[in-house]
Each structure stands twice: as structure tokens, then as C-alpha cells.
Amino acid sequence: MSNARFRKAALALPGVIEGTHHGHADFRVGKRVFATLGYPDEKWGMVKLTPDQQAVLIDAEPEMFRPVPGAWGRSGSTNVKLAKIDQVTLRSALEMAWRNVAPKSLLASLETQ
After folding, report:
1. Is this structure's pTM higher than 0.85?
2. What are the protein's UniProt keywords (predicted)?
């Protein structure tokens, strides 16, 4: 998985814009970050999950996912190893993270379609 494919998958979700966060590319819906690229280095991305979602993904795919070190990781922030993840698994993780922070109005509009 390349940075370009991660970026493309994140930007394909409704209402997403790209910005920067602490010197890394980030992906936001509304004003809330749900994913970043290049953290801790160019081999990794990050998705903002709940601790329960994080546990499920790490248990299922420990080669692809790990908690971000420290308090952020204990809160659900999860590193994604770009060299190991496939497109389907990445899209699933990004969508979970997107749903965790998307405005309720955007979520409601998707459910009525």
C-alpha cells in the first residue's frame, strides 16, 4: 500500500478534506481528524478508532495494526502498516474511523440514501 493509495481511500469518503496535523498529512470530516499519514514515519498511517475497534483489528490482523504508543494509543489511535495492509482492510478501517468522527447530519444523510 502506498501513501497515494491511503490518501485516495481516505479522500473517497464523504465530506473528507486533507489538511496537516503536527507536520503530517491528515484527513478530516467536519473539523475532526480521523486518519493521518506518515506517523511515526512514512511506513505508517493512523486511524482514530475506539479502543474496542482497535482491539478487534489488532487481534485479527497483528501484522497490519498496532496501537499508537502512549495515551493516544490507549484511546484507540491505531497505526496501520502500509506495506502489510490490503485495500479492502484499509477501506474498512478508514470507514470505521470516519464514522467515529463524522457529524451526525452527514451520517444521517448517508443512511437515508
Report:
1. yes
2. DNA-binding
